[in-house]
Design a protein that fits this description.
One of its GO terms (molecular function) is hydrolase activity. InterPro entries: Cell_wall_metabolism_enzyme (IPR050570), Dup_hybrid_motif (IPR011055), M23ase_b-sheet_dom (IPR016047). It comes from Christiangramia antarctica. By secondary structure, the protein is an alpha+beta fold. It contains six helices and twelve strands. The protein folds into two domains: 206 residues, no CATH class; 187 residues, Glucose Permease (Domain IIA), CATH 2.70.70. Helices cover 61% and strands 16% of the residues. Helix 2 packs antiparallel against helix 4. The protein is flat.
Length: 403
């Protein structure tokens, strides 16, 4: 009689492995689609900006974004191809094991049929029963004959099921190989596009290097404008803390006086560090937190108190966590800003063209707060997103999931 336990264990093992690999494949494909959309959006923006005869700096910044997204797409496609390679190897091994099990199952079944054929005459069955020493033994022999018949039927069904399973695996294997070939071909085209963009980048950078001083002066002037906006944001936070504390009877101007409910909300916010959703449905971080070399003119240092995220035209800013709107203010040079309190944590959504909430409103995670403004000169829809604990600046990338 064939041992079924190792076979069942094999099915369970490969079944669980397949589920895990399928989830990985879905996650990678989702991210690949997002990257392709990003690259398409940046490419369209670049074409639009070229028609507007935008500055070389803007063209290079757009091109750099496209190159980075293309590099990420190539890496991701390689990961998908490698995952398919592992799945193909797993399925090949699985097919080999199933074939061995099926061959053994068929051999056992053939022996059973042969033995059954030799003793299948009605006379031999009757003699087998009549030769019993007593009624109990005859009853047991009758039950054995029924069990033997049922087992033979079960073995036949097992063979049929495993044959279908093998056919399914072979079909999946062919599909996986086709998918891998398709990914490799796509990656080849993507690499060609990347090389073309790098050549354009080198040409633009050559013109920038010739006028580096002029561009450095433009960047410093723009940084001064950003610093003024940041000072306005800092002032708004200080005034909000002072106003809230005055209402609660506290004189502190540097940190919120928290109620038990506010403390619990702040603790909940902190527990979600690294897992918070993005403040836009989809977007690309174009400037990260802190002091850093300018992405084009590396000799000039720039500073950012939050992150800048380019998103779709008419894109909406969304609350990253439950909280209360503490301020809605116009900020000179940056349209409107919404400030949301999460206990003593603060999120700020700046550069909004339209606002959907007002001071005192309670908001929930992913609730739309307003429409992000589109710069008419550059064609970019950019959210300035900042995160604070009281008046302490925090790096949003450490808090937002996969930023």
């Amino acid at each position: 009689m064939i041992k079924l336990k190792p076979f069942l264990f094999l099915l369970l093992f490969f079944g669980n492995l397949f589920i895990l690999q399928a989830q990985d494949r879905e996650d990678l494909e989702k991210r690949r689609v997002e990257l392709r959309e990003q690259i398409k959006r940046i490419s369209e923006l670049r074409i639009s900006n070229q028609k507007k005869q935008q500055s070389v700096l803007t063209q290079v910044e757009d091109l750099n974004q496209q190159i980075r997204s293309t590099e990420d797409l190539i890496k991701l496609t390689n990961q998908q191809a490698n995952l398919l390679t592992r799945e193909i190897s797993t399925n090949t091994n699985k097919i080999g094991e199933l074939r061995k099990e099926l061959e053994q199952l068929k051999a056992d079944y053939a022996q059973m049929i042969e033995k059954s054929y030799k003793s299948k005459s009605q006379q031999s069955r009757i003699m087998f029963l009549l030769s019993s020493e007593n009624f109990l033994q005859a009853y047991k022999r009758l039950q054995y004959m029924k069990q033997y018949t049922n087992y033979r039927k079960q073995q036949g069904e097992e063979i049929k099921a495993n044959t279908l399973k093998l056919q399914e695996l072979n079909t999946n294997l062919l599909k996986q190989k086709e998918q891998k070939d398709q990914l490799i071909a796509e990656n080849r085209k993507t690499r060609a596009d990347l090389e073309k963009n790098r050549k354009s980048q080198n040409t633009l950078m050559a013109s920038i290097n010739k006028r580096e001083g002029e561009f450095a002066s433009q960047i410093r002037s723009k940084q001064n404008q950003i610093n003024e906006i940041d000072r306005e944001i800092d002032r708004m936070i200080r005034e909000s803390i002072a106003k809230a504390n005055k209402e609660s009877g506290s004189t502190s101007r540097t940190s919120y006086e928290l109620t038990p409910a506010a403390k619990a909300l702040a603790a909940d916010f902190a527990n979600n560090k690294g897992k918070l959703p993005w403040p836009v449905r989809s977007g690309i971080v174009t400037m990260r937190f802190g002091t850093q070399p300018h992405p084009v003119v590396k000799s000039v240092m720039v500073n950012n108190n939050g992150v800048r995220i380019d998103t779709d035209e008419k894109g909406k800013a969304r609350a990253i966590f439950n909280g209360t709107v503490s301020e809605v203010q116009a900020v000179k040079g940056a349209n409107q800003a919404i400030m949301v309190r999460h206990g003593d944590y603060i999120t700020i959504y700046n550069n909004l063209e339209a606002v959907y909430v007002k001071r005192g409103d309670n908001v929930t995670t992913n609730q739309e707060l307003g429409e992000i403004a589109t710069n008419k000169a550059t064609g970019k829809t950019t959210l300035h997103f900042l995160l604070y604990k009281n008046n302490q600046k925090l790096d949003p990338a450490l808090w937002i999931y996969q930023m």
